[in-house]
Amino acid sequence: MNSYCDIAVSDGSGSMKAYLAMPAGKPKAGIVMIQEILGVNKDIRAMTDAWAASGYAAIAPDLFWRLKPGVELDADIPDEFQEGLNLMQKFNADKSVEDLAASIATLRSRGCAKVGVVGYCLGGRLAFLCATRTDSDATVGYYGVGLDNLLGERQNIGKPLLLHIATRDKFSPPEAQAKVRAALKDNPLVTIYEYDADHAFARGSGSARVPALAQQADARTQAFFGDKLA
């Protein structure tokens, strides 16, 4: 069952809409899906539905709501991709982490004792911040942008974190990736997988998707959540 719900944000500034997908029976855990710069588009909704079909309660909050509610963009349409980049430049990551914490709390209020977070691109960056700033029980980031600038928070990682890194990521140069690997290599809570691919290889559809690698990464994510959220 899928629907939309409203989540009151913690700073009292209003509420944001979120796409919610619930399993047929009692959820085995919760999953917060974090959007790319493209908003809660058809790919994010399909991924949210897929988690529900696997027995999880899944929610995808509209994190651009303070700038432009209801954004749905296609990366293969240049003007729409540029709009996403423009929104990211105006985006308040700190407020969005608070919004994600509220999304985690929403799933807990719906009967999920454990809640995981998974994000892509911009969402991969926010996933890292969820691992350091929220009570997420397990967190996954796909090709997060700018993680090398967040490493000062690494000591706050207290729950399992899985990172999928695209070694040919045009938004994350090799030296940035090397900093991330070096800073996190001794943390037993962190698992890193690398893929010979460019950014967005695991996007739900479109020209950037690399099906074989996307399926490999997604299988690892499913196994990770199956273990850590049990």
In short:
Helix content is 36%, strand content 20%. The chain is built from six helices and eight strands. An eight-stranded mixed beta sheet has the order 1-2-4-3-5-6-7-8, sandwiched between helices.
Number of DSSP strands? 8
**Through-space gap between termini:** 22 Å
Strand portion? 15-25%
Low-confidence stretches: none
Number of helices: 6
Provide a descriptive summary of the structure in words.
With 230 residues, the protein is α/β, with parallel strands linked by helices. The protein has one domain (2-228): Rossmann fold, CATH 3.40.50.1820. The chain is 36% helix and 20% strand. The chain has six helices and eight strands. The protein has helices at residues 42-53, 78-90, 93-109, 122-133, 174-184, 211-228; strands at residues 2-8, 15-21, 30-34, 57-61, 115-120, 138-142, 161-166, 190-195. It has an eight-stranded mixed β-sheet with strand order 1-2-4-3-5-6-7-8, with helices on both faces. Helix 4 links the parallel strand 5 (115-120) and strand 6. Helix 3 (93-109) packs across helix 4. The model has no long low-confidence stretch (mean pLDDT 97).
Helices and strands, with pairings:
Blueprint (H helix, E strand, L loop, with lengths): L1 E7 L6 E7 L8 E5 L7 H12 L3 E5 L16 H13 L2 H17 L5 E6 L1 H12 L4 E5 L18 E6 L7 H11 L5 E6 L15 H18 L2
Parallel strand pairs: 3-4, 3-5, 5-6, 6-7, 7-8
Antiparallel strand pairs: 1-2, 2-4
Helix pairs in contact: 3-4
